[in-house]
Amino acid sequence: MKTFARALCGAVSMIAVTAAAPALAEPKAEVLHYWTSGGEAKAVQALQEAFAARGGEWVDAPVAGGGGDAQAAVLRARVLAGDPPAAVQIKGPNIQEWAEAGALGDLTAVATAQDWDKVLPEAIQNIVKYEGKYVAVPVNVHRVDWIWANPEVLAKVGAEVPTSWEEFNETADKLQATGIIPLAHGGQPWQDATVFETVVLGIGGTDFYRKALVELDMDALGSDTMVAVFDQMRKMRGYVDPDFPGRDWNLATAMVMRGEAAMQIMGDWAKGEFAAAGKVPGVDYVCASTPSDNGYLLNSDSFAMFNVSGDDNVEGQAVLAELILGTEFQETFNLFKGSIPARTDVPRAEFDDCAIKSMDDMVAAAEGGTLLGSMAHEIAQAGAVRGAFIDVATAHFNSDMSSQDAVDQLVKAIKLAQ
Ligand code: BGC
Question: Which residue lies with its CA nearest to atom 10 of ligand 1?
Fold first, then answer.
């Protein structure tokens, strides 16, 4: 992607997105995103409405397909055609790569006016800055390592949300014995990778996760611990119903809501689905972090402003950037999305217990050194390396490949991808 992005954008210099001053032109923005599920659509609509309230003309460019892989292909094609959208939902190392290619506008003016350095945690600043300058505006923090469970269904086997992987397996075995689907899962590679990384975190621990998935340490990748991770993944596969291939993640969430399955392992965008369906946390569903040694797998959505021409577009980008990090909008958006605000000074009063847990756990993890970027959701890795992890995780999940073969393939694939 690096070479590709560089070749596309060549020496195009970074334009500066100015802080929204008295409008010289009607603000306009074509916004590329992949928020198409019930909860996601509500959240993006809140942004659309806030933009319209500022006189903005929103050109919606949604690409269906959770996890953003389909959108990435559309973005590349648009840039290749010399016609990038004004604002694009991208994250992690992708931001750095597009910035390095000279494709992104510089958000320094807005960032200075709103004092982003003061209100954003360092972990988020590092994601959205390129060479010390802001090139993307963060919308939220999504935690990935969550279990979403239906308490009534768990109660049928006298269980509560498991707090260790042994307990997870015991509960799942009991559920299965009574004909209940233990794990709601959608069969798409990124969903397999989402479960995989929570298992890496839980079975291996935070240090192992860092070594294997962040630092790409070959000893960790080829270790017996990784064999144990794939052993657990084989168990997980056994807890999923036979109709899972191709299922969207939100349909898996709906299975938990309807009591057809007991649990789902998914980031807290799943909470956006529960919220959109009027479900109440602690009553209709419960949230718990997947078992680990106080790990926190961080994912954060943000918008980057691509170099576009036309005063209306440039004005639109400035208005959007300012709007997105506004305290009020951060609250509204994240209540719909299931995530927590990217800025740390948003009042907590409206947020539910799951969100408060996420806020507290994130601070504790940052202090304790257990805050880790998600591999599946493009924070720790992007491009070919992330692709290699996902390919092996999904190939193993969807076949009878042995754990040792999966580990051997993983080592080979990551070596090749680097
Ligand atoms: C994104 C979320 C999105 C989810 C499902 C994640 O990678 O960060 O915003 O809701 O994928 O599409």
Answer: 269
pLDDT of residue 2: 40
Weakly modelled stretches of the chain, pLDDT under 70? 1-24
CA angle 177, 179, 182 (to 5 degrees): 80
The SS3 of residue 68 is helix
Give the per-residue pLDDT at 395: 98
Model pTM above 0.70: yes
What are the domain boundaries of the chain? 28-142+300-361, 146-298+365-417
CA 311–ligand 1 middle distance (angstroms): 31
**Domain spanning 28-142+300-361: CATH superfamily:** Periplasmic binding protein-like II (3.40.190.10)
pLDDT, one tens digit per residue, over 85-121 is: 999 999 999 999 999 999 999 999 999 999 999 999 9
Give yes or no for a contact between 362 and 143, defined as CB atoms under 8 angstroms apart.
yes
* Rounded Cα distance, 92 and 176, in Å: 38
Pocket test for ligand 1, best of 266, 269, 340 (most atoms within 8 A of CB): 269
CATH of span 146-298+365-417: 3.40.190.10
